[in-house]
Amino acid sequence: MSAPHGRSEGGLALETCRLTKRFGAFTALDGVSLTLRPGTVHALLGENGAGKSTLVKAVVGYHRADDGAVLVDGREVEISSPTVARELGIGMVYQHFTVVPGMTVAENLLLARGRLPAVIRWKHARAELEDFMAGAPFALPLDATPQSLAAGEKQKLEILKQLFLKPRLLILDEPTSVLTPQEADEVLGALRERAGHCSVLLITHKFREVVACADDVSVLRRGRLVTSGPVAQTTPQLLAAAMVGEARPAVAVSQERPDVSPGEVRLGIEALEVEGDRGEIAVRGLSLQVRAGEIVGVAGVSGNGQRELMESLVGQRRRMAGEVRVDGSPYSATRRQNRILGVRALPEEPLASACVADMSLARNLALRCFDEQGLFVRRRSLRERARALIAEYRVKAQGEGAAMKTLSGGNVQRAVLARELSGEPRLLLVCNPVFGLDFAAVAEIHGRLLAARNRGAAVLLVSEDLDELLTLADRIVVMSGGRIVHEVPAAEADRQTLGAFMGGRTHDPAREAA
């Protein structure tokens, strides 16, 4: 496939000059001037809401900037639509899949061109696609459909769709979020190798990826560019400080981990089976124990039964077979059992799964205990308790009377955490607790989970972030295909071995011997 008429070969140089974008009274992008050198990998960091997505969407034509300019190879261009961006050689891989599920890999690749003839000469097209796949950094079967592909393979297809167009600049938004460690290394390594032919702008939140893959790095904070330069001249600590701002108060939560022996079995799961959304068996004969004073981390690529497991434990999904016990007693996740046994939960989507959106923050904070004092709750004591929790957990809201739905995602997460950790819980069921939160909030929540563990709570932690599990867990199990296929003490865990099991390896001699 030849380059479009007038397009140069090799990675392009991109500059944004005082790029500004407003949404009503809110300034999402405030005079950002960024330079991406041709043929390099440039990492873009920033907390949620820092302006990263707004910036790249302005570059690819999804947003029209209110002020400033975009320069390609030193020439100012007006990118009014993604079609114009594609013609300039700019492609983007989004965080969410855009493949057509019912079409084959071959059809999805051809569809990426945007314009297709009324009649496709399949013999010629097939030869072209086979030639492309032979030289691609990773290959997929052309006749497979995305429905038959694993999450990592779908992400690779998204990247292949853009590489098929021979871009001169490829923008990737969190491309490794659904990949195993091996797949992430494969993808980043392939991009690193192709950088001389195609400039890469990589949005990521993983410092490890920045150090391993990028030449330059820029940090956005509250819509402004706060630092930019070679990766070799900075450190993860400096980048983290730039992301959150030096003026932010330090998190006053200890992250110490005393070396203690786990206590009695707090959570016992035996031969559990759970049905998925489409009637399939999502959790297959799963058995697991979590002891007092330990954090057991559940690793796995999204879609391997972790969500269904947690929903069945907290009472949001019916169990088909098996047994769940808490402190030796059969457990069905009733409100009364939760209170007596000290079971608390932090779900993946707290606003949808753990809150009443239209109810006030104060009443949401009291959902676990409002009836302990009888049917009639004294409003004054409810508000006082809410204010204390809001202050302790630094929940930002327009007072305790604000509706829960008016809080940002991070503050909803803080509020639910405040409610669930109050009263010395004995068992915590936690699912992706820091998804979408800033670095300061991540450190604080991690510290609070460790503190609960240090006080003797048992914690079952599901996370798609392997770094989080390696940081927090005492023991790690890997779920694949609805089963636990690997188990290892976190101190002995090997990233590549975990990745192999996450990717589908099903034989674990150590677990079978046990």
Summarize the structure.
The protein contains 18 helices and 20 strands.
Written overview of the protein:
This protein has three domains: 14-244, P-loop containing nucleotide triphosphate hydrolases (Rossmann fold, 3-Layer(aba) Sandwich); 249-342 and 425-514, P-loop containing nucleotide triphosphate hydrolases (Rossmann fold, 3-Layer(aba) Sandwich), CATH 3.40.50.300; 349-424, no CATH class. A hairpin with a 2-residue loop joins β19 and β20. The protein has a six-stranded mixed beta sheet, sandwiched between helices. Strands 16-17-18-13-19-20 form a six-stranded mixed beta sheet, with helices on both faces. The radius of gyration is 25 Å and the shape is globular. α3 runs parallel beside α5 (151-163) and α14 runs parallel beside α15. It is α/β, with parallel strands linked by helices. Mean pLDDT is 87; it is low at 1-8 and 247-252. The chain has 18 helices and 20 strands.
